[in-house]
Amino acid sequence: xxxxxxxxxxxxxxxxxxxxxxxxxxxxxxxxxxxxxxxxxxxxxxxxxxxxxxxxxxxxxxxxxxxxxxxxxxxxxxxxxxxxxxxxxxxxxxxxxxxxxxxxxxxxxxxxxxxxxxxxxxxxxxxxxxxxxxxxxxxxxxxxx
Amino acid sequence: xxxxxxxxxxxxxxxxxxxxxxxxxxxxxxxxxxxxxxxxxxxxxxxxxxxxxxxxxxxxxxxxxxxxxxxxxxxxxxxxxxxxxxxxxxxxxxxxxxxxxxxxxxxxxxxxxxxxxxxxxxxxxxxxxxxxxxxxxxxxxxxxxxxxxxxxxxxxxxxxxxxxxxxxxxxxxxxxxxxxxxxxxxxxxxxxxxxxxxxxxxxxxxxxxxxxxxxxxxxxxxxxxxxxxxxxxxxxxxxxxxxxxxxxxxxxxxxxxxxxxxxxxxxxxxxxxxxxxxxxxxxxxxxxxxxxxxxxxxxxxxxxxxxxxxxxxxxxxxxxxxxxxxxxxxxxxxxxxxxxxxxxxxxxxxxxxxxxxxxxxxxxxxxxxxxxxxxxxxxxxxxxxxxxxxxxxxxxxxxxxxxxxxxxxxxxxxxxxxxxx
Lengths: 145, 421
Prior knowledge:
The complex is a heterodimer of chains A (145) and B (421). Among the domains of chain A are: 1-34; 44-103. The longest helix of chain A has 70 residues, at 72-141. Chain A is built from two helices and no strands. Chain A is rod-shaped, with a radius of gyration of 32 Å. Helices cover 88% and strands 0% of the residues of chain A. Chain B is 63% helix and 0% strand. Chain B has helices at 31-37, 54-62, 83-93, 97-137, 144-197, 218-223, 229-332, 372-385, 389-396, 405-411, 413-418. The longest helix of chain B is centred in the middle third of the chain and has 104 residues, at 229-332.
């Protein structure tokens, strides 16, 4: 099969189009996921901000959090509440960071794959040209081939 | 003794009358009787048609019949031409006048036979000299040289054609190789250039970012007099957990980055290797085609050489056969085969002079010392005179350039035969 530049260009264009299509979809998915994750974190913080006064008020009604009384139970509850908030929001933020990192990693993989595919296509083109060159030499050799 | 005439209608056959004082006379006859005796045409002239006798006389003159004998000069009857001569003649001959006439006739016949024999001998000699001339001049080759020239021309034309085909083929192969090599260089050159310019590493700057974990309630706890230490420990633990995942991810990216760099270099190496392989393949391909062309040329040359040699052999074989036949004919005729082209008379084409000449020359020159008969005697005596064939050959033929014994024997067969070779 002789080298066909149009076919080579079409194959190259197909590679690039596939990369763009998949990258766009991946980017959209990642953006969507980011929005959801950030909203979830924001909602969690809102919940914690709303629950913190309720927790303080509960200990105040029971007399364990007054101006003169600071019970150990209140302090421990507040610390646990704060630790839980740190833990939950930290995990959510960590998950978001990991998701973003894997999106970048996935994009890098696709870029690497595109580069490899383009290299392979270029090598096939060069190899086809070399085979055509051999055919040309054979034709020129005529009866001596 | 018969009195048959040598030639019809001549009077030589007629017996003269007895001579008187050396004068021969012939009887006067009528033309018709003479014509009848001499078997002449009858009815040609008659007495009626020739009353004056003029035509009869012309007829007799024409056929030399009944002519008066030539008049002898006056003779002294007592001189040597007279009675004494007659007496001496009678003594010497022991016979009469009829016996003398028979002797004359016999002499004439002998002379005629000798003349014929000389003529035949001369003819044979000329034929032999012609054969020698043909051998010495190479005339026996006939149109062989022309045929050899044609064959030589065919050889040259054939070789030129073979070389033309070969050179054309080699030229096409080399041109095809140059074109193919150019394509390979262009194709792989473009690939190498592309690979060199696109040594990308998509993983180069990919790192997972670790967002800081904060204690959003630090102020809140402090406001109520609650210590943040336990919360800070939780912040640190969460931070470490997130950092740990990021580190694992980053390590993976570093590994993939290294692989990509290696892959890039490998692609470039593979491309260069493929270019080298393609170039080597084209070189091998060209070498194979050139070898095919060499083989085809050699085969064609061999075939042409065989054809030319066969054609030459056929011509030379014919020449050799004709030369052998010519030499045998010369030897059978008693001639020598050692004449050279310089011995050939260019005017007659015959070998008339020189050591190898046969018989006297046509110009009446005496027999050459090296004539055929003399040479035959030399050849016959050679075994007694010389120790071997080669010594005899060298001494008897000083101008002969000895090459091989077989050639010498072939050229001097009688001498070789004398030595039993």
